[in-house]
Structures are given as C-alpha cells and as structure tokens.
Design goal:
It is a single chain. With 386 residues, the protein is an alpha/beta fold. Helix 12 links the parallel strand 12 and strand 13. The chain is globular, with a radius of gyration of 21 Å.
C-alpha cells in the first residue's frame, strides 16, 4: 500500500496585487498579519503599488518584505507588464512555496507569464470579485469569462471569498476542481468601551440625545460601491439622520454628486478611524451594485454595528436579513429610506448584537488564516506526491 506523501514544510509565501487601497488592501492587511502571527517560521513577501504602503504599515518585522511599485497608474498596460515581470523575477530568485495573486488585473498579468515561474511554486489566485459578475454588456462579460477559464489552467487553486463567488465561477464555466471557498476575516478590535465601562457614547454625542441617527459609509466613492445612492438616501432623510463617509475616489474619474448638508466626508482614513466610526454609528449603509464579498459588512459586524446592504454578491452571504441588518435592492433609495425609518432603536441594537455573534462564529482573521494555511499545505502535499 503506497504511503501518503508527507507535507513539506511551508517556508515562504509571496503575495502580489495591483489594487490601490480599498477592500483588497484591507484583506491583505488582515490575512498577512494573521499569517505572520501564526506561521512563525515562514517568510512573507508582498508586491504592491507604493500607494498602499501607509495602509499596510502594521505589517513589519524580519520575516516580512514589502516591495513597492512606483507606477502612478497601477492598472495601465505598462504598469501591469512591469508588475508581472517584477513578480516573475522575484519568484525565480526567492523560490517561494506559494505565489498568491490577488485581484483581476494582477491575476491576468502574472498568470499570463506563469510558464516562466519555477516548477515547484504553487500558484493561488483570488479574484476578490469576478470581473464577469460586474455590470456590463453580455458580450464583455462572456469575453472576460473566456479569459478566466483559460487562465484557470495556470492556477493550482482559485480562492473564492464567498460561496456566491464560487457559484458564479461555476456558472461561467470555471472548473470546479480549481475552486475553494475561504471567506474573509477580520481581527478583533478593542472598543473604547472595553477599557472604560462607564463611557456611554449615547450620552456624550449630542446627535444621540436628539435621536438623529448616525449612518456610516466606508469605501471607494465610485459606481460599484453605490456612493451616489448613499448620498440620495441621506438627502431624503434630511434632518432625521447625520451621515459620515470615509473614503475617496480611487479608481473612478467621475465627478461626485452634490453632497447634502447632513453628510460629512472625512476622506480616506486609516483602519483605526474606520473602526471608531463603526463604534459610534447606528448603522452602516452598504449600497453596492456588485460585490465579491463586502468586507466592510464583516468589519461593522465585528464592531457590533447593524448593516443595511444591497442584495448582491457576497453581501447576501454575510448579512442575514432581519437578524444582523436588512437587505435591499440596489439603486432603490426610497426603499432604503423606508427600511431605515421602519427600524426601531431596539432593532438596530439587536441587529448589532446578532452581527457580532455571527462575526465571532464565521468571520475572524484567525479562521481565515487557518483555512488558507490548510489550503497551502494541501497544495504542497499534492506537489510532493507528483
């Protein structure tokens, strides 16, 4: 009877992305941080645009290397070619066990050069939301799907960040044996209330005393994230609510719609400021038009905040309608306003408490890291058996 191949030790993992700021970078901050804590003998490299350096400042130490790319337009053809060539050179020099590629453009550019990679390196690809699931013409979506099917053969595994993403991949013909679901995770963040039980934000914030709800938005100010819908909701709510929006236009050149007087825009902030907003707000509004996962929803649930989100993509897997928040159809500002008005203060507290429990059971960074390490180990075992 043949012996089962022993799993070789995991020594080095190289991550690469072209994505500037936003959810992919937050994901990498969580995943790589958890990997550095739990994989104590493993070196981890990250190749990423220079704009992400400050957002990843917490990733440091002798076992971590950040390789910053200085192209101003990280998704231009020349920048993507440079990213792919730089990645191949790095992998050929350092010989990592795993090359983990994140996001569509990096996935296409690097996997196109996959035949140049060392034979022993396993390739893992995570699209962070399939491009063929986004809004667009049927022809363009079919063309993108055809490219993804071809590139799937150059991936040892494709990580789907939600079961929705896995279902979409199968529907568009991505081979099922390449797909594995590893849902996103968030590290626990200490609340100010954890260290000062006497502090009552409801009493210290005058808007809480006046019963003006604080409705948060966090993310890119672009069409995908539905920032225009958020502003329209706040415009209709008028003096019933205040809004605080953290983010900016990173990938869009479109002019922002006029901002109503009850919304304050803070611009791009570090993650500590985002989590502080979650702890002060009454609900997080996530009016996305498409999402592979929707990391901000899990972040808000970690903070015990109710989440009102579009019934699209992975958000449908995260938010349980009527239990951790409410789901609605995208672009329906009037419908969102009605849901907000119908939710009592007790409802919002209940949604937040249920969301916190769901986060602890399903969306921790340690669980994500453990699942990813198990995937890496399976790939190394398969490689050893060849």
């Amino acid at each position: 009877m043949p012996e089962t191949p022993r799993t070789p030790p995991l020594r080095r993992v190289s991550h690469v992305t072209e994505a500037p700021l936003g959810g992919v970078v937050s994901y990498l901050d969580e995943l790589l941080g958890a990997q550095l804590r739990s994989l104590r003998d493993v070196r981890i490299d990250l190749i990423t645009p220079e704009i992400n350096r400050d957002a990843l400042a917490d990733l440091s130490g002798p076992r971590f290397t950040l390789i910053a790319l200085r192209h101003r337009r990280s998704r231009s053809p020349m920048a993507l070619l440079s990213l792919a060539v730089r990645t191949v050179r790095h992998v050929r020099r350092t010989r990592p066990d795993i090359l983990h590629i994140h996001s569509t453009f990096a996935g296409a550019a690097v996997r196109a050069l996959a035949p140049l990679l060392p034979r022993g390196t396993r390739v893992v690809y995570c699209p962070h939301g399939w491009a063929f699931s986004r809004q667009g013409s049927g022809r363009s979506r079919r063309a993108i799907a055809a490219v993804e099917r071809w590139l799937a053969g150059r991936s040892d595994r494709i990580v789907c960040i939600s079961d929705y993403e896995r279902r979409e991949a199968k529907a568009f013909g991505i081979p099922a044996d390449r797909l594995v679901v590893v849902e996103n995770g968030i590290s626990p963040r200490a609340s100010a209330n954890d260290t000062d039980p006497a502090r009552d934000p409801q009493a210290t914030d005058p808007r809480r005393r006046n019963r003006r709800r604080l409705i948060a938005f966090a993310g890119r100010f672009d069409r995908q994230k539905g920032f225009d819908t958020y502003l329209e909701v706040m415009r209709q709510l008028k003096d019933e609510a205040d809004g605080i929006a953290i983010g900016s236009s990173i990938t869009s050149n479109e002019a922002l719609p006029d901002c109503p007087d009850n919304v304050r825009i803070l611009g791009w902030q570090d993650r500590a400021a985002v989590f502080d907003l979650y702890r002060r707000a009454d609900l997080l509004l996530v009016p996305s038009r498409w999402e592979g996962f929707g990391l901000v929803a899990a972040e808000a649930m970690q903070a015990g905040l109710a989440v009102f989100a579009s019934r699209v993509g992975g958000l449908q897997d995260i938010v349980v309608d009527g239990e951790t928040g409410r789901l609605f159809q995208p672009d329906d500002a009037a419908g969102i306003v009605a849901l907000i008005r119908a939710a009592s203060g007790d409802d919002l507290v209940r949604f937040g408490e249920n969301g916190r429990r769901r986060y602890l059971a399903r969306y921790t960074a340690q669980r994500m890291s453990d699942d990813m390490t198990a995937l890496y180990d399976r790939l190394l075992t398969e490689n050893a058996g060849r």
